[in-house]
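User: Could you walk me through two proteins back to back? I'd like the raw sequence and the structure tokens for each, with a short line separating them so I can tell where one ends and the next begins.

Assistant: Of course. Protein one, sequence then structure:
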Amino acid sequence: MDRVLAHGQYILGPEVQELEEKLEQFVGVEHCLGVASGTDALQIALIALEIGSSDEVITVPYTWISTAETIALVGAKPVFVDIEPDTWNMDPALIEAAITDNTRAIMPVGIYGQPANMSAINAIAERHGLPVIEDAAQSLGGTHQGQRSGGLGTIGCTSFFPSKPLGCYGDGGAVFTNDAELAQRMRQIRNHGQAKKHDHPILGLNGRLDTLQAAILLAKLEVFDQEIAQRQAVAARYTAALSNAPLTTPTVAPENTSVWAQYTVLSPERDTLRERLQAEGIPSVSYYAVPLHLQPVFAALGYRAGDFPVAEQVASEGLSLPMSRGLPEEVINRIGKVCTSTERSSP
């Protein structure tokens, strides 16, 4: 950070390019571009694929709103499919029924730290000639069949929001691809569509990664593998501590590894459990408690309660417990005892 302050190249300075090169090596792709946020990453990917009015993009209703929001912002229609009951990621078995003549892309999400079943999704996409935009905002560092998340689709998108396993000190994100032409288009789009100074052949946006954030990420990337291993150890301790609790612990598919962005459990008594944890001074969060197909902003899509039962169940029962690489074992055991307790709060 001191070096950035000294050279003063606060926008697209040399640290941004250095970070991009190191992330290319980490993910195993030919091209990486640092961008201003995970949301910008998704929107830049959609624009680069020339997706717009009258087009459809298949995604999931159980995710942060950016996934579907960016589809709508480029003028396209989000088309939802349900999630798997174990991994809580896109169910590949439901994709082909959702494909129409207007489908232009598939956008799976790596929820809570593990990638979706990208090999199955890619096979479907290939049969139908569709690109795959991998929303790896939570799963960067996780793997599918030995390959890093972010490099599993036509374009991978991630976020460096401070709460992510690899987070900066503000907003930040990146896009990944092995397609040189797409990389060049995305490079222009992130900088107002500019090919060179005073030359704007395409429409773009201001989606540049600040150099200060790149400097922070460079330091964190050096120890990211250790961060992942520590998070995996914390998750294993959680699963052991919760083995007798009346709830569902998360499942990692055998072909995947998770970076454990969150450790999320399902409980039919979620609100009661949250209250018991709170009484013990333990924070917990219900992420995505209202799935996207039931959000007011997407009411015009015509979806109703009951359309995606798995997503709705996970949304109504999901509770994320404290997760960090240094979470002490005694804290995990204390949380396990609260979750295992059969006591109920007074009405």
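----
Protein two, same layout:
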Amino acid sequence: MDRFEYFSSVSGDMGKILRFMGLIAAIPLIVTVAYSEWEMFVPMGLVPLLFIIVGSLLAQVPRPAREPRLSVALMAVALIWLISALIGSVPFIIGLHMSVTDSIFEAMSGWTDTGLTLLPDVGAAPKTLLFWRSFMQWLGGIGIVAFTVALASRSGLVQRGLYRSEARSEAFMPSVVGTGMAMWRIYIIITLLSFGLVLLSGVPVWDAVNLTLTAIATGGFSVTSGGISDYNNVLLELSLVVVMLAGAMPFKLYYLMYHHRTFSVFGDRQAVTLLILALSGFVVLTLDLFVLTGTDLLTAMRRGIFMAAAGISSTGFQTASPNLWPPVTTLFLIILVLIGGSSGSTAGGLKISRVLLGLESLLWWFRRIFVSGKAIIPFRHEGRTVQKNIAEVEVSKNMLIIIMYFLTIFLCTVAVLHFEPQTSFESSNVIFEITSAFCNNGISTGFVNPDMNLPTKWVFIFLMWFGRLEIVPVLVLFVGIVKGFD
């Protein structure tokens, strides 16, 4: 088959997903009406219209008899996220007259839950656009495909291929549609609970709604120019710490609690590791700020716990700028950002499960070095013994992804430093910013701003897209365009 035939095998399912997104994307118009922002009705109204038009066109493409292969499903998911960012940028282009590049950057940051922004003045933006940013992050947190596949009429190979291609591994039920429905219900429930918690901090309802949507999605967009610091509210910061960590937990925990009435954080390795990393980050950041910068202890603790939680959960909220910290403190925060949250959560980053598997692989490798070549050393993962041939394949795939993460960060850092030769930021801050974008974190040193050169902005757009889908789908799209999908 040629490229078009491969594409046509999955275009119908892409069309269904985009048409459903069109219905969901009409929700921000409620804010337009509620706040009488009639000048935003057309810019915002074009979003659902474009989703439906593009989806309907794709749905009309004749579909071949054979099922699409995995590579085509990977390509389709990468395209769905790119199309969503392009359509999502329209209100910024028309409503705020931002440049096309800046608007696509903003929309990609929203859909991928990154939280970096190029808005010149967040506080002055229309409420419709502020809610659209928050809503994009909320939808992107659970995943565009994961959110919409629950509404599909069937659960076949196409749905499974698309779902798995979105870097999702959780499987609560045999049916992908069943799992999608369970995730949807759980996501809405924990969002509502989080809203109640944030509201208890005393912030206005409007702020609480937006902060909840972006916190549970581990996104990090805010509705004020100064972000969380503008509130100067300890209760808000502590409530957001809880919500951010809740969003970074594996959703399987919530499923077990919802359906089996059992909830054991300490029975899940990822959850335990997440809490240990958050606590370790709190201790290290607090001590560094107290000892190295002379910050008073209470302020150091307050910033330490919030920034550690924001770092490990891949949420872009921040109460301090790493640009003002000692390099060693910023380096430690980079480690938290790079690791990210749990697999099967809304968080970005390498994922805790991948890091744990990498550590298990190294231990397995070292154990085999120091024994006889005839000895069989079993590979154990999550309490189970894995066959050697399967273990070697999974270990190799896992290490390959980790290597690609570091290689991407290195190459993009070199590119950005060439595109921004006159920058006043140290290279360590540039590395932090690139890691933050690639891991869909959003904590910023201030390097990302509207004055960046055009190529630099596109590097960051690519990084956010590349990182959210965990590399492979975007690579498959590029390779498929050049060489085909054979």
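The chain has a mean pLDDT of 87.

Let me know if you want the two compared in more detail.
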